[in-house]
Design brief:
25 helices, 686 residues, alpha/beta, 8-stranded mixed sheet
């Protein structure tokens, strides 16, 4: 689509000269009235101010001053009228000056337009009251979408507590506006496919969870039905991920298990909630521009006038940005992933894999999700743990208790004669800012009586919910399977499907490899997987099926059209009777295959032997140029998969290892996948 240049008041001759001077990717449109310039989506608007009457000039100036630098396009004013002092305006004294400066004006205008499109906003320019009304409406919408039109009273109470905390902070802090900006930033990060997680006390908030800013559900352990919205609390479990699987007694739908049991006060333990975004270091410049161009524009002079960077950290009021994620360890499908109770085993596995580095805590290897979450938080070190975690866990503490309690107070009370149950109760009372429920005379006169005074200063201990958030982030990146967010067919090999996002209708998939690499086994595995799903697969083998030996390609085209197949495979394609191994023939055949896939709206897989080039190289891994007639056929191929088993060339290599090299794909970049080769049953698996 061409980029638009809107004009107003130019003569026909000026329009002709301007059109001749514009690069071919731009097209001119003529506005019939001044208000058309306001609603147009043009990169740049060029206005002859001498053609404007006083009313038209005032309309444009008033609009510009009203939206400030929110205006997407650039306005070029021809003539002597002074434009508003905004970066969106450019002034040229004459049409000749415009033509002379046209290239620089268009470059500047395009940069500005792209920036505003990239960093566009929903909340940033609204009045304060409108932002608060809008974000509260969004919160209520997602609450009812998740928990139904009549949410459980406990959930409603939690929501009111958090909203009250946001409304009652100092008005100058603008807590709801900050939440709206964070909500918008998180959506923008997802749209840009930038992985992130948010730390600090907001990780224990229900509101950030519902808005998908965080992924730690702070509610007590529970199950709920996604269909009829029935909810059941499970107080006997320490974590919702440990609740057994069950179905809804009313409608038979699988129940969702959720809830990590984090107390609400931790959401707002400071003056206002703070939001710490952990981001890849390479995004620092992007985030800086986002803040400068977007964040809280309605009071930018006082709240966000400057962006400060110190020690790889960018502070911006109550929201700060920490650039510390390692992009190499983050799955590219990150934002399409989730962590549910079904991935409990992976959660334990992740914590257990790091266990050898943290066995000094003295806790056993985690057996369930609650222990895994608690252990991970303890491994991150709350600053108060001294090796007593195992004993406290065995005292029956829940996750929320374990990750933000003070074992020093627990053992202080034990040392002063309190039984274990009362020591835990006293510890919780202190950490919640309520002080000791009982102070004995012995405590008042003991040598460590200074502890009493110190505990009076504790308002509320910050939780380790951020550690849970980081753990869920790592599981999403490392283990959690993505949702099926593509509409096509899958191969049955998860690692491959997650990378190429399935086989879409109308696509041609070329599977190449030297003889004995497993091309036929791979295709037969896909056929078997799809057949088990009830799909119709048409498999043409031009070598092993004798009845097909004397047919030409037109016969197969006709049979495929009549088959109503969902997927087709052409195996040993070079041995087709009318295929004569020339560039012209190869191009013609693949053009026909692509047309056939598009016409029938099915994916078609073509298996090809590669040439002998790999055998002449020290590393026989296949590459695209090993495909016969690659230059002529690849324009008609959507995905190229090259299979390779090193053990075929090196007997010392594990025979059960294989590689699938994704050399071309419509929805991913070059990638090498490690697969498992079943040498006895001739199958590829993850």
């Amino acid at each position: 689509m061409n980029r638009q240049i809107a004009t107003y008041g130019l003569t026909k001759q000026q329009l002709m000269l301007l059109e001749a001077a514009l690069p071919e990717e731009y097209e001119l449109t003529t506005a019939e009235c001044v208000t058309d310039l306001i609603v147009t989506n043009a990169v740049c608007s060029i206005i002859d101010t001498s053609s404007l009457d006083d009313e038209g000039r005032l309309v444009l100036i008033a609009y510009a001053l009203d939206v400030g630098d929110q205006m997407d396009g650039t306005m070029v004013w021809l003539g002597g009228v002074e434009p508003p002092a905004l970066s969106s305006f450019v002034c040229c004294d004459s049409f000749l000056d415009l033509l002379t400066e046209l290239d620089s004006i268009l470059t500047r205008a395009q940069v500005r337009y792209d920036t505003m499109q990239m960093y566009g906003s929903e909340y940033a320019y609204l009045p304060k009251h409108a932002i608060e009304e809008s974000i509260e409406a969004d919160i209520n919408t997602v609450l009812h979408r998740k928990y139904g039109t009549n949410p459980d009273p406990l959930i409603v109470k939690r929501m009111r507590q958090e909203l009250t905390a946001l409304r009652e902070v100092d008005a100058s802090q603008n807590a709801l506006q900050d939440l709206a900006a964070v909500y918008e930033l998180s959506r923008w990060l997802k749209a840009q496919n930038i992985p992130f997680f948010v730390e600090h006390v907001t990780a224990s908030g229900l509101i950030p969870y519902l808005l998908d800013i965080t992924h730690t559900n702070p509610l007590p352990p529970h199950t709920f039905c996604p269909k009829c919205k029935q909810l059941h609390w499970h107080p006997t479990y320490k974590d919702g991920f440990d609740i057994p699987a069950a179905v809804c007694p009313d409608c038979g739908t699988d129940l969702i298990r959720d809830g990590h049991g984090l107390v609400w006060q931790e959401f707002c333990c400071g003056p206002i909630p703070t939001y710490g975004f952990w981001l890849p270091a390479s995004t620092q410049e992007q985030i800086s521009r986002w803040v400068e161009n977007h964040w809280r524009k309605q009071d930018w002079e006082t709240a966000w006038g400057a962006v400060q960077r110190e020690n790889s950290r960018m502070d911006a009021g109550p929201c700060y940005f920490i650039f510390a994620l390692d992009e190499a360890e983050i799955n590219p499908d990150f934002h399409h992933r989730t962590v549910t109770a079904e991935q409990t085993g992976e959660l334990i596995r992740l914590v257990g894999s790091k266990w050898q580095n943290y066995d000094g805590i003295g806790m056993p290897y985690p057996k369930n999700a609650a222990e895994a979450l608690a252990v991970y938080a303890l491994m991150k070190d709350s600053g108060t743990w001294n090796g007593y975690a195992e004993k406290l866990l065995h005292c029956g503490l829940g996750v929320s208790d374990l990750i933000c309690c003070r074992e020093d107070i627990f053992y202080y009370l034990r040392d002063h004669g309190f039984v274990e149950k009362d020591a835990i109760r006293g510890m919780h009372s202190v950490r919640k800012g309520k002080g000791f429920p009982v102070i004995t005379e012995e405590m008042r006169n003991a040598r460590d009586k200074w502890v009493l005074k110190q505990c009076e200063t504790i308002d509320y201990l910050s939780s380790k919910a951020a550690d849970l958030e980081r753990l869920l982030f790592q599981i999403r990146g490392d283990f959690a399977p993505p949702i099926n967010y593509y509409d096509g067919l899958d191969t049955g090999i998860d690692a491959l499907d997650n990378s190429i996002l399935g086989m879409e209708s109308g696509e041609v998939i070329l599977v190449g490899g030297r003889p004995a690499m497993g091309k036929t086994s791979f295709a037969r595995g896909v056929e078997r997987h799809l057949t088990e799903q009830g799909k119709r697969v048409f498999y043409f083998d031009f070598v092993h099926d004798e009845k097909e030996a004397h047919k030409d390609f037109a016969d197969f085209e006709r049979e495929l059209r009549e088959s109503e197949a969902d997927f087709a495979v052409f195996d040993h394609f070079q041995f087709l009777s009318d295929y004569d191994e020339t560039d012209e023939t190869a191009e013609a055949f693949f053009k026909r295959i692509k047309s056939l896939a598009t016409e029938l709206q099915i994916p078609i897989m073509v298996l090809l032997h590669l040439n002998k080039n790999p055998e002449t190289r020290p590393d026989p891994s296949p590459v695209t140029t090993d495909i016969p007639h690659a230059e002529t056929i690849l324009p008609f191929v959507d995905t190229v998969l090259l299979l390779y088993r090193r053990a075929y060339y090196d007997p010392l290599v594990d025979r059960n290892t294989a590689r699938c090299i994704i050399d071309k794909a419509a929805r991913c970049h070059y990638k090498i996948l490690s697969l498992r080769w079943d040498d006895e049953n001739y199958r590829f698996t993850d």
